[in-house]
Amino acid sequence: MESSIIFNQVLILFIILAIGYVAGKFKILDSSGTKKLSEVLLFVAAPMMVLGAFFIEFSKERLVNIIWIVGFATFMFIVSIMLSKLIYRRFNEKTAPVLRFAAVFSNCGYMGLPLMKAIFGDEGAFYGSFYIVVFHVFLWSYGYVIFGSKDRQSGILKRVLLNPSIIALYIGTIIFIFSIPVPLPIKGAVKAVGDMTLPLSMLIIGGVISTSRIVTLFTDWKVYLASFVRLILMPSLAFFIALIVGVPSLPAAITVTALAMPVAANATIFSEMFGKDAVFGSKCIAVSNLLSILTAPLIIGWVVAYM
């Protein structure tokens, strides 16, 4: 696939983000609006996109690729955790957890999954859904460990198992494995609602960024370090490991695409929850989103060309 096609797909995302930013500045999309849209995204659109990705024919090759995705994703999360500890070992207790979180967790769901679908088709969204499972397992376990919380780790399994997108994955897996026929009207409705994920996610990000002064986002050098680790170091490392190990092309491309996404929105949520630097977390999210318009097409195009 030509890098220009990938660039165009990423550019579409950021045009929608810009629309969300303008809507936020004109108070059309205020904080209550982004909150409601986030709920629609979390409980309706994203699960439907995951479910719709499973409306494909079962095959042994796809089953093998699922195993590769889960295994390689798990391995890369462990590598990211180890590297983040090494890179950020000298930072203070307010920013270090945020930086480590940013290094480990990308916006692989709300931004990554729609992009995978746009670039690789339904097959991309299908495999990407299994990456999301691994993401949630680490998010609701190690995510708490990063911020030093011991009293809130109860119920982690429940959070993982009852996440709306994971529930959609359960249903989709049953449909996929047993080749259950789905009526065309249901397929059409599920896919139509699932296709809302991309515009909704970017409108929300644009609306959130609009609440900050753009100039203040670019004055902290640590934000650039976080963006470099998140957008370039981690996906590049995954690419070279995939080549050395011999990971099949599509599972490798999906994993690298997920790792090339900006910092996960949970960085701000967790920072606020555990009394860390939430403002710094917001800056990391905003700047990495803006910079990824340049880095994501290069990284993904590079991977697609060589895999």
Compact overview of the structure:
The protein is mainly α. The chain contains 16 helices and no strands. Helix content is 78%, strand content 0%.
Q: Which descriptor suits the 3D outline?
A: globular
The parts where pLDDT drops under 50 for at least 5 residues are none
What's the CATH architecture?
Up-down Bundle
| Named CATH topology | Na+/H+ antiporter like fold
Q: Evaluate the radius of gyration.
A: 18 Å
Report on the architecture of this protein.
This protein is mainly alpha-helical and 307 residues long. It has one domain (3-306): Up-down Bundle (Na+/H+ antiporter like fold), CATH 1.20.1530. The protein is 78% helix and 0% strand. The relative contact order is 0.19. The model has no long low-confidence stretch (mean pLDDT 87).
Indicate the topology.
Blueprint (H helix, E strand, L loop, with lengths): L2 H23 L5 H22 L7 H28 L8 H9 L3 H13 L1 H18 L2 H5 L9 H6 L2 H14 L6 H11 L2 H13 L4 H4 L3 H25 L3 H11 L6 H8 L4 H29 L1
Write a concise keyword list for the protein shown above.
mainly alpha
